[in-house]
Amino acid sequence: MPVDPNPAGLAAEPGATAREQTRRRIIDVAIDLLERGGRDAVTTRAVADAAGLQPPALYRLFGDKEGLLEAVAEHGFTRFLAAKHIGPDPQDPIRELRVGWDIAVEFGLANPALYALMYGEPRFTTVFRIGLELLTERIRRLAAAGLLRVEEDLAAQIIHATARGAVLTWLSLPEPQRDPALLHALREAMITAVTTQDPAVQEQGPAGAARALRARLPDQDVLSPAEQRLLTEWLDRLSA
Amino acid sequence: MPVDPNPAGLAAEPGATAREQTRRRIIDVAIDLLERGGRDAVTTRAVADAAGLQPPALYRLFGDKEGLLEAVAEHGFTRFLAAKHIGPDPQDPIRELRVGWDIAVEFGLANPALYALMYGEPRFTTVFRIGLELLTERIRRLAAAGLLRVEEDLAAQIIHATARGAVLTWLSLPEPQRDPALLHALREAMITAVTTQDPAVQEQGPAGAARALRARLPDQDVLSPAEQRLLTEWLDRLSA
DNA sequence: ACATATCTGTTAACGACGATATTAGCCCTG
DNA sequence: CAGGGCTAATATCGTCGTTAACAGATATGT
User: Keyword set for this entry (chains A, B) (predicted)?
Assistant: First the structure.
């Protein structure tokens, strides 16, 4: 394993390693071949030819072809995130969720071959994991507002599954049968499944959540009386 | 185009053409190879070898490899329909919809490689079209009962998309992260989007407030790290 | 009944693919 | 100037999908 001569990632654009530059060039031509001629068009020979090197060079940079495709998926994903990044909207986290879902779906519709590469076959890939983690981050803001109907991990899975089904189904339909109402219906179904209409907490911050929980604590039966007694004490401290 | 010597499909099992019998044998071994070793294990040589012929024989029967895979997908689909066919339930078409969705999802979870072959890549295939048509048939009964919220075609697309997202997402998750609540949530989201039935609003209880407090826990400093750790565990239990 | 056509499966081979071992060129350090 | 270590090119292997040419079996037509 060679040492990265640019560990901090400073000046990544101009000062990147030659190795990193050729990697980028190869990934770019691979994405181009992918979107132009489908997955079967991405052969080691075609990629090497379009990038101006010999096929064995790919194996030194990506290990094998699967590594190349993984790098392609990862790069396409990060490029999408960088281009369409939306700032947090503390005013309306539900609107933020809608916008984020729309952006993810639009990315799939705009890059069908890349999307099929990333989410076509069901495998636990890095891209899949990172996508869920980024979702979890935003879901936390929903939870903090008391707007979450389900657990955070489950919410991320629901959001991902509806978007994935939306993109793949849309792309499977012949053009005249594609109706934007499908996307709208799936998005709103996702919103209903994930969020709740009336927030569970009114006041912001940990104190508000603690007071809301303390008020509803008698309804539960998953904690023993002793646990509940100690929890109540902590909630009182948090409420102050 | 040769004339089908058995157009009525009578006595399909014993009286089938020799051609039809070898086709079935080849499809069976192809399905076996598919579920055992994934899509890459289905090579013309491996299939021919397992079926006791030489590779060129496949081309007389299926045209090319894509034709073979298409026949595999189609056969797996019809076999699934024959095995799990459910009769119409005029008493409760919404329950019929739930059962049908569950069956479709279970089929995907039970035959992951076959499902990925049928619905992994977004293409307008015969299997996709027939699946939607069969759905439309049942949706008509919902419409007749006045329970449909959207157009029939759109309803079929919503049902398909939620099931597709459910299966692929479920199969993408590592085993410990697979929660049946995902399937339940997606199914009920589908019901809400497709039918006029009001969503069964379950009483929130302390779960929402617990999730809100858990999301805001890092913001506080009145609890010690040890207290916070135990509190997090309790909040997770309350959130479920 | 016999010749003919069709079907079915074989052997052999082609071109392209993913992948690797080996060899030649290059730069940097001493 | 010498030599080690990295980079890149050459040549090659085994496998893949696919096709051509051919042989036996079967059905068909007169």
Answer: DNA-binding, Transcription, Transcription regulation
